[in-house]
Design brief:
By secondary structure, the chain is an alpha+beta fold. It folds into four domains: about 110 residues, no CATH class; about 90 residues, no CATH class; about 90 residues, no CATH class; about 40 residues. The chain has ten helices and 20 strands. α9 runs antiparallel to α10.
């Protein structure tokens, strides 16, 4: 009565909150608490992982799962839900047609579900292995990785989730997404990863990864380290960070009245035959409560450095630079060279730097470190000699 903006095509969008919307449509599914938006064909679409589950599967170990922590002994990520952010259209795509529970649901509601072949490629490119599923699979694998009956019966080799320093306390490490090249592969891919440690020990024994890309989507891999090789776990790296005098002094200085230091999640990043560890450091004011990234800590088995950016920290840990004591600042810039041969040296330095960036892009850390060392030598040669007083 009050406006002529309404037409015959006008619709009232009810239940606009996407979690409430999908639960109203398919209350028999368990929905992930972490929907994520993607851009597909020029539109914003929310993707939500949906699970079929039961607590009545015979001869299966029970565990807790879902937003209410209910006990189950069967779960499958059988459905991917796409919700258009503009008009609210909901599509349920079956990604696991062999799942018995989703087969029953399809027979009851035949028009509700779509085959995976009907999902646009623009959406498929954004599918990811769900964290909730990896968590429950890892919790079972802690015990069932033991295939020797005697070892299994005596529980001689249980595994567990490692712990990390987060904010001001310790917590279990959560699975995280990462882009890396798997052993034996030639291209980097998007993975969901979780490091694993032996029960009541801090060294890392293995890591689990859920693959997300292309035809490898949904595959779960576990890489075990040789038992004779000591690989530091997250808690051991956290201890090494605490033992670093320069870093500890800086954290204590920042963590004064009016502000507090927040240590972010520690990432374990396998790179070829080595392991790299990275942890962000945030500073938060007690008044604004808005964290600001201040430093990035990068560590290896033998070295811990802290710099303003990830790139600076990587350069330092590869070239062997130690963390400065005063404020962990990067080395001061050198004055511009004035040597007659600086032109050729500068060109060589630029070529060496470009080579280092290419090595870094390819994940060749040994080649990257060698190029950075040569670059450092070139820069030192370009610097003018210090004057004698």
């Amino acid at each position: 009565m009050l406006t002529d903006s309404f037409t015959d095509d006008t619709r009232l969008l009810w239940r606009r909150q996407i979690q409430e919307r999908v639960r109203r449509i398919a209350p028999f599914l368990e929905f992930d608490d972490d929907p994520y938006p993607v851009v597909a064909d020029g539109r914003i679409v929310w993707i939500i992982d949906a699970y079929t589950k039961t607590n009545r599967f015979p001869y299966a170990a029970p565990t807790r799962f879902g937003r209410y922590g209910g006990r189950i002994n069967y779960v499958r990520n059988a459905v991917k839900v796409a919700v258009d952010a503009i008009d609210g259209t909901v599509r349920l795509y079956v990604v696991d047609p062999d799942d018995a529970l989703v087969q029953v649901a399809r027979r009851i509601f035949p028009s509700l579900f779509s085959d995976m072949d009907e999902m646009p490629e623009s959406l498929r490119a954004h599918l990811r292995y769900p964290i909730d599923l990896l968590d429950v699979q890892a919790s079972q694998y802690f015990i069932y990785h033991m295939t020797d009956p005697r070892v299994f019966y005596n529980k001689e080799d249980p595994w567990e989730r490692p712990r990390e320093q987060y904010r001001t306390g310790m917590q279990p490490v959560k699975a995280y997404y990462i882009i890396m090249t798997l052993p034996g592969e030639t291209k980097p891919e998007y993975l969901l990863m979780l490091p694993l440690t032996p029960s009541r020990k801090n060294n890392m024994i293995a890591w689990m990864a859920g693959r997300c890309d292309g035809k490898n989507y949904g595959k779960l891999l576990v890489y075990k380290f040789p038992k004779e090789r000591l690989v530091l776990g997250p808690q051991q790296i956290e201890a090494n960070i605490d033992k670093n005098d320069a870093i500890s002094e800086q954290i204590t200085l920042w963590d004064q009245s009016g502000s507090r230091v927040i240590r972010g999640n520690l990432l374990v990043i396998p790179i070829r035959d080595s392991i790299l560890y990275a942890e962000p450091l945030y500073l938060e004011s007690e008044q604004t409560r808005f964290p600001e990234l201040k430093r990035v800590i990068v560590a290896t088995k033998d070295r811990v450095v802290m710099r303003r950016t990830l790139r600076e920290a990587l350069d330092a840990v590869v070239t062997g630079e130690e963390t400065p004591v005063a404020g962990t600042e990067p080395p001061p810039e050198r004055p511009p060279p004035e040597h007659p041969a600086v032109g050729n040296a500068a060109r060589k330095a630029i070529e060496t730097f470009q080579e280092a960036q290419q090595r870094l892009k390819e994940g060749d850390w040994a080649g990257y470190g060698e190029a950075m060392k040569r670059l450092r030598g070139l820069l030192e040669k370009m610097s003018p000699p210090s004057e004698t007083p």
